[in-house]
Sequence to fold (172 residues):
Amino acid sequence: MGQWCPARLPEPGPASTTPTWEMVKAFPMKDGKKYNDVSGKYYTTDTLQAYWLNRDPRFEKSIVWNAKLYPVAGTTSGYRQYTSVGVADALDNYGINPKSSTTSQNNNRYSGFFVLKNSNLSLTQAQVQQYDVDYVVMRFAEVMLNYAEAANETAHTDDALAILKQIRQRGY
Fold:
């Protein structure tokens, strides 16, 4: 058995955990359809400019996207987080951008999205460097999903559907 050693913390600045584009696309629209389902009520061909519009409410609570209102402590009212290359110079240091006055040191490790869920927005930037987060190992929704799966596999479909509806309701 090897020795346990703590994970090395990233240097200040780089985001060590960012949602991927695949994760962003996985969130359904308000009507439950995929973002690219042409039969959906909220389908648009302007996906890159409007991917956050009309998404399931869990998207709003989970993802920070370019120009999203982001009420972090110590910022002015109406503060927006800019995450796209070429929009906000202070945050341009995450990709190859010929128009940026800064040189990227992160070699495109960022997706342009950040995690909002479980973020403590009452902390100032100085406090964030000292803040630890205890990540949830198993969510209650996972326990409910396991129960729903067992109910379905034992021919209790009505119970399984009721549990799935409860999970969906908890997301709002």
About this structure: The chain has two domains: 21-133, 136-172. Confidence is low (pLDDT under 50) at residues 1-13, 86-97, 104-108. The first strand starts at residue 63 and ends at 64.
